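Re: the 312-residue chain
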Amino acid sequence: MFVKNPEYFLTIVKERSISRAAEHLYLSQPYLSQYLAKLESNLGVVLLDRSHTPLRLTPAGELFYAYLERQDYLDRQLVSDLRDLQNKKRPMLHIGVSPWRGSTLLPDVLPRFTKEYPDVQVVLHEAPVPDLADLAAGSITDFCIMHIPGDLQDLTYELVMREHVFLIGSRLHPLVRDSQSSYEDPQPFPDLRLLEHERIIMLPPDWRLSKLLRNTFSVHNVEPQNILITTNNTTAINLVAENMGFAFLQESGISRTPYLDRLACFTIGDPPLTCPMAVVYKKNGFLSPAARTFIDLTKEYYSRFDRKDWDV
Protein backbone atom coordinates (compact mmCIF):
# COMPACT_ATOMS: atom_id res chain seq x y z
CA MET A 1 0.00 0.00 0.00
CA PHE A 2 1.07 3.61 -0.53
CA VAL A 3 1.69 5.61 2.63
CA LYS A 4 2.12 9.37 2.25
CA ASN A 5 5.03 10.83 4.20
CA PRO A 6 5.96 7.64 6.10
CA GLU A 7 8.88 9.52 7.67
CA TYR A 8 6.34 11.49 9.72
CA PHE A 9 5.11 8.39 11.54
CA LEU A 10 8.61 6.96 11.87
CA THR A 11 9.78 10.19 13.48
CA ILE A 12 6.84 10.24 15.93
CA VAL A 13 7.77 6.72 17.01
CA LYS A 14 11.45 7.58 17.29
CA GLU A 15 10.79 10.71 19.36
CA ARG A 16 7.87 9.09 21.25
CA SER A 17 6.22 12.49 21.21
CA ILE A 18 4.18 14.38 18.61
CA SER A 19 5.51 17.75 19.72
CA ARG A 20 9.17 16.70 19.57
CA ALA A 21 8.58 15.00 16.22
CA ALA A 22 6.97 18.20 14.89
CA GLU A 23 10.03 20.21 15.95
CA HIS A 24 12.35 17.70 14.29
CA LEU A 25 10.31 17.77 11.06
CA TYR A 26 9.81 21.57 11.12
CA LEU A 27 6.04 21.10 11.17
CA SER A 28 3.38 22.46 13.48
CA GLN A 29 2.10 20.14 16.19
CA PRO A 30 -1.57 20.52 15.11
CA TYR A 31 -0.64 19.58 11.54
CA LEU A 32 1.24 16.47 12.68
CA SER A 33 -1.62 15.50 14.99
CA GLN A 34 -4.05 15.79 12.08
CA TYR A 35 -1.71 13.68 9.93
CA LEU A 36 -1.70 10.93 12.56
CA ALA A 37 -5.46 11.05 13.04
CA LYS A 38 -6.04 10.80 9.28
CA LEU A 39 -3.54 7.94 8.98
CA GLU A 40 -5.30 5.98 11.73
CA SER A 41 -8.68 6.70 10.14
CA ASN A 42 -7.54 5.44 6.74
CA LEU A 43 -6.09 2.26 8.28
CA GLY A 44 -9.05 1.73 10.60
CA VAL A 45 -6.84 1.10 13.63
CA VAL A 46 -5.27 3.00 16.54
CA LEU A 47 -1.50 3.14 16.09
CA LEU A 48 -0.40 4.98 19.24
CA ASP A 49 -1.58 4.67 22.82
CA ARG A 50 -1.98 8.30 23.84
CA SER A 51 -2.79 7.46 27.47
CA HIS A 52 0.92 6.89 28.11
CA THR A 53 3.70 9.46 28.28
CA PRO A 54 5.89 9.00 26.34
CA LEU A 55 3.70 7.63 23.56
CA ARG A 56 3.61 3.88 23.11
CA LEU A 57 2.82 1.79 20.04
CA THR A 58 -0.31 -0.35 20.07
CA PRO A 59 -0.04 -3.90 18.67
CA ALA A 60 -1.37 -2.53 15.36
CA GLY A 61 1.18 0.28 15.59
CA GLU A 62 4.02 -2.17 16.09
CA LEU A 63 2.93 -4.07 12.98
CA PHE A 64 2.63 -0.88 10.92
CA TYR A 65 5.99 0.42 12.16
CA ALA A 66 7.70 -2.86 11.17
CA TYR A 67 6.09 -2.57 7.73
CA LEU A 68 7.36 0.98 7.24
CA GLU A 69 10.86 0.07 8.39
CA ARG A 70 10.95 -2.80 5.93
CA GLN A 71 9.56 -0.60 3.15
CA ASP A 72 12.21 2.04 3.82
CA TYR A 73 14.95 -0.60 3.68
CA LEU A 74 13.55 -2.06 0.45
CA ASP A 75 13.38 1.38 -1.17
CA ARG A 76 17.02 2.07 -0.33
CA GLN A 77 18.03 -1.40 -1.48
CA LEU A 78 16.20 -0.92 -4.80
CA VAL A 79 17.93 2.40 -5.45
CA SER A 80 21.32 0.85 -4.65
CA ASP A 81 20.73 -2.21 -6.85
CA LEU A 82 19.49 -0.10 -9.77
CA ARG A 83 22.54 2.16 -9.44
CA ASP A 84 24.84 -0.87 -9.52
CA LEU A 85 23.02 -2.19 -12.57
CA GLN A 86 23.32 1.17 -14.31
CA ASN A 87 27.05 1.25 -13.54
CA LYS A 88 27.38 -2.37 -14.74
CA LYS A 89 28.71 -3.50 -11.37
CA ARG A 90 28.44 -7.17 -10.49
CA PRO A 91 25.75 -7.83 -7.88
CA MET A 92 27.24 -9.02 -4.59
CA LEU A 93 26.09 -11.57 -2.05
CA HIS A 94 27.59 -11.21 1.42
CA ILE A 95 27.56 -14.43 3.46
CA GLY A 96 28.64 -14.77 7.08
CA VAL A 97 30.00 -18.12 8.19
CA SER A 98 32.50 -19.53 10.64
CA PRO A 99 35.78 -20.69 9.04
CA TRP A 100 35.05 -24.32 9.85
CA ARG A 101 31.45 -24.18 8.64
CA GLY A 102 32.62 -22.51 5.44
CA SER A 103 35.26 -25.17 4.80
CA THR A 104 32.72 -27.99 5.10
CA LEU A 105 29.71 -26.37 3.40
CA LEU A 106 31.00 -24.17 0.59
CA PRO A 107 32.85 -26.83 -1.47
CA ASP A 108 29.47 -28.51 -2.04
CA VAL A 109 27.13 -25.51 -2.31
CA LEU A 110 29.16 -22.78 -4.00
CA PRO A 111 29.77 -24.60 -7.32
CA ARG A 112 26.03 -25.25 -7.72
CA PHE A 113 25.18 -21.66 -6.84
CA THR A 114 27.74 -20.29 -9.29
CA LYS A 115 26.17 -22.28 -12.13
CA GLU A 116 22.81 -20.60 -11.45
CA TYR A 117 24.17 -17.12 -10.75
CA PRO A 118 27.50 -16.80 -12.61
CA ASP A 119 27.39 -12.98 -12.44
CA VAL A 120 26.91 -12.73 -8.68
CA GLN A 121 30.08 -12.09 -6.71
CA VAL A 122 30.04 -13.98 -3.41
CA VAL A 123 31.82 -12.22 -0.56
CA LEU A 124 32.62 -14.38 2.46
CA HIS A 125 32.74 -12.88 5.93
CA GLU A 126 34.44 -15.57 7.97
CA ALA A 127 34.28 -14.84 11.68
CA PRO A 128 34.03 -16.62 15.04
CA VAL A 129 30.49 -17.78 15.77
CA PRO A 130 29.74 -15.13 18.46
CA ASP A 131 30.61 -12.33 16.01
CA LEU A 132 28.35 -13.53 13.19
CA ALA A 133 25.15 -12.17 14.76
CA ASP A 134 26.63 -8.66 14.79
CA LEU A 135 27.44 -8.96 11.08
CA ALA A 136 23.82 -9.85 10.33
CA ALA A 137 22.35 -7.20 12.65
CA GLY A 138 24.57 -4.54 11.09
CA SER A 139 23.50 -5.50 7.54
CA ILE A 140 27.13 -6.23 6.73
CA THR A 141 26.02 -9.64 5.49
CA ASP A 142 22.88 -10.63 3.63
CA PHE A 143 22.66 -13.60 5.98
CA CYS A 144 24.78 -15.78 8.23
CA ILE A 145 24.83 -19.56 8.53
CA MET A 146 25.19 -20.25 12.24
CA HIS A 147 23.66 -21.54 15.43
CA ILE A 148 20.62 -19.54 16.53
CA PRO A 149 21.94 -16.54 18.51
CA GLY A 150 20.66 -15.80 22.00
CA ASP A 151 19.70 -12.19 21.19
CA LEU A 152 17.16 -11.95 18.36
CA GLN A 153 16.01 -8.37 18.96
CA ASP A 154 17.16 -7.17 15.52
CA LEU A 155 17.34 -10.56 13.84
CA THR A 156 15.18 -13.31 12.48
CA TYR A 157 16.08 -16.80 11.32
CA GLU A 158 15.06 -19.82 9.30
CA LEU A 159 15.84 -23.15 10.93
CA VAL A 160 17.94 -25.33 8.63
CA MET A 161 18.20 -28.39 10.84
CA ARG A 162 18.75 -29.62 14.36
CA GLU A 163 22.28 -30.83 13.86
CA HIS A 164 23.38 -33.91 15.79
CA VAL A 165 26.37 -33.50 18.07
CA PHE A 166 28.82 -36.42 18.08
CA LEU A 167 31.39 -37.37 20.64
CA ILE A 168 34.51 -38.45 18.76
CA GLY A 169 37.54 -40.34 20.02
CA SER A 170 40.53 -42.13 18.57
CA ARG A 171 40.08 -45.85 18.00
CA LEU A 172 43.44 -46.28 19.74
CA HIS A 173 42.03 -45.00 23.02
CA PRO A 174 41.26 -47.75 25.58
CA LEU A 175 37.75 -46.38 26.25
CA VAL A 176 36.61 -46.90 22.66
CA ARG A 177 39.14 -49.37 21.23
CA ASP A 178 36.67 -52.27 21.15
CA SER A 179 33.69 -50.23 19.96
CA GLN A 180 32.18 -50.67 16.51
CA SER A 181 30.51 -47.25 16.66
CA SER A 182 31.32 -45.20 13.56
CA TYR A 183 30.28 -42.08 11.69
CA GLU A 184 28.00 -44.15 9.44
CA ASP A 185 26.53 -46.08 12.37
CA PRO A 186 27.03 -44.09 15.59
CA GLN A 187 25.99 -45.73 18.85
CA PRO A 188 25.08 -43.99 22.12
CA PHE A 189 28.07 -43.33 24.39
CA PRO A 190 27.47 -45.44 27.52
CA ASP A 191 28.37 -42.98 30.29
CA LEU A 192 29.75 -39.45 30.08
CA ARG A 193 31.26 -39.85 33.54
CA LEU A 194 33.92 -42.02 31.91
CA LEU A 195 35.32 -38.80 30.41
CA GLU A 196 35.77 -36.85 33.66
CA HIS A 197 39.53 -37.37 33.77
CA GLU A 198 40.12 -37.52 30.02
CA ARG A 199 41.27 -34.54 27.97
CA ILE A 200 38.22 -32.94 26.34
CA ILE A 201 38.79 -30.52 23.47
CA MET A 202 36.08 -27.85 23.44
CA LEU A 203 35.17 -24.54 21.89
CA PRO A 204 35.28 -21.33 24.02
CA PRO A 205 32.74 -21.24 26.88
CA ASP A 206 30.61 -18.45 25.38
CA TRP A 207 29.98 -20.34 22.13
CA ARG A 208 26.55 -21.91 21.69
CA LEU A 209 27.76 -25.50 21.41
CA SER A 210 29.91 -25.20 24.55
CA LYS A 211 26.99 -23.81 26.53
CA LEU A 212 24.86 -26.74 25.38
CA LEU A 213 27.55 -29.24 26.34
CA ARG A 214 28.14 -27.72 29.76
CA ASN A 215 24.43 -28.03 30.44
CA THR A 216 24.62 -31.67 29.31
CA PHE A 217 27.55 -32.28 31.68
CA SER A 218 25.53 -30.78 34.52
CA VAL A 219 22.50 -32.98 33.78
CA HIS A 220 24.75 -36.08 33.83
CA ASN A 221 26.68 -34.93 36.93
CA VAL A 222 29.94 -34.78 34.99
CA GLU A 223 32.75 -32.37 35.93
CA PRO A 224 35.52 -32.57 33.31
CA GLN A 225 38.94 -32.10 34.88
CA ASN A 226 41.04 -31.58 31.75
CA ILE A 227 39.62 -29.19 29.12
CA LEU A 228 41.61 -27.86 26.17
CA ILE A 229 40.01 -24.82 24.50
CA THR A 230 40.27 -24.21 20.77
CA THR A 231 38.40 -21.92 18.38
CA ASN A 232 39.04 -24.26 15.46
CA ASN A 233 37.11 -27.51 15.01
CA THR A 234 39.72 -28.74 12.55
CA THR A 235 42.28 -28.52 15.34
CA ALA A 236 39.94 -30.55 17.54
CA ILE A 237 39.51 -33.31 14.92
CA ASN A 238 43.24 -33.48 14.20
CA LEU A 239 44.09 -33.78 17.90
CA VAL A 240 41.50 -36.50 18.43
CA ALA A 241 42.83 -38.40 15.40
CA GLU A 242 46.26 -38.37 17.11
CA ASN A 243 44.70 -39.77 20.30
CA MET A 244 45.14 -36.51 22.18
CA GLY A 245 41.67 -36.43 23.71
CA PHE A 246 37.94 -36.44 22.95
CA ALA A 247 35.83 -33.77 21.27
CA PHE A 248 32.18 -32.94 20.67
CA LEU A 249 31.49 -31.79 17.11
CA GLN A 250 28.57 -31.27 14.75
CA GLU A 251 27.89 -34.22 12.49
CA SER A 252 28.02 -32.39 9.15
CA GLY A 253 31.53 -31.05 9.65
CA ILE A 254 33.00 -34.39 10.63
CA SER A 255 32.04 -35.91 7.27
CA ARG A 256 34.85 -34.11 5.42
CA THR A 257 37.73 -35.08 7.68
CA PRO A 258 40.32 -37.41 6.10
CA TYR A 259 40.59 -39.23 9.44
CA LEU A 260 37.15 -40.87 9.58
CA ASP A 261 38.70 -44.34 9.68
CA ARG A 262 40.61 -43.36 12.83
CA LEU A 263 37.58 -42.07 14.70
CA ALA A 264 34.90 -43.69 16.79
CA CYS A 265 31.75 -41.53 16.73
CA PHE A 266 28.99 -41.63 19.33
CA THR A 267 25.67 -39.92 19.93
CA ILE A 268 24.97 -38.36 23.33
CA GLY A 269 21.78 -38.95 25.29
CA ASP A 270 18.35 -40.24 24.38
CA PRO A 271 17.07 -38.66 22.19
CA PRO A 272 20.49 -37.78 20.76
CA LEU A 273 21.86 -34.34 21.55
CA THR A 274 21.34 -31.76 18.79
CA CYS A 275 22.18 -28.11 18.24
CA PRO A 276 19.88 -25.89 16.09
CA MET A 277 21.58 -24.46 13.02
CA ALA A 278 19.93 -21.69 11.03
CA VAL A 279 20.18 -18.98 8.41
CA VAL A 280 20.12 -15.69 10.33
CA TYR A 281 19.47 -12.27 8.85
CA LYS A 282 18.32 -8.79 9.86
CA LYS A 283 14.68 -8.51 10.84
CA ASN A 284 12.61 -6.96 8.03
CA GLY A 285 15.65 -7.29 5.78
CA PHE A 286 15.57 -7.99 2.06
CA LEU A 287 16.68 -11.31 0.61
CA SER A 288 17.49 -11.12 -3.09
CA PRO A 289 16.61 -14.02 -5.41
CA ALA A 290 20.31 -14.96 -5.37
CA ALA A 291 20.34 -15.01 -1.56
CA ARG A 292 17.19 -17.12 -1.49
CA THR A 293 18.71 -19.58 -3.95
CA PHE A 294 21.87 -19.92 -1.84
CA ILE A 295 19.75 -20.52 1.27
CA ASP A 296 17.68 -23.16 -0.51
CA LEU A 297 20.84 -24.93 -1.70
CA THR A 298 22.19 -24.82 1.86
CA LYS A 299 19.01 -26.42 3.22
CA GLU A 300 19.18 -29.07 0.51
CA TYR A 301 22.80 -29.82 1.40
CA TYR A 302 22.09 -30.25 5.10
CA SER A 303 18.99 -32.37 4.48
CA ARG A 304 21.33 -35.33 3.82
CA PHE A 305 22.28 -35.26 7.52
CA ASP A 306 18.69 -35.31 8.77
CA ARG A 307 18.29 -38.58 10.68
CA LYS A 308 14.85 -37.99 12.17
CA ASP A 309 14.45 -41.65 13.10
CA TRP A 310 17.07 -41.16 15.82
CA ASP A 311 14.84 -38.69 17.63
CA VAL A 312 11.73 -40.85 17.77
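The mean pLDDT is 88.
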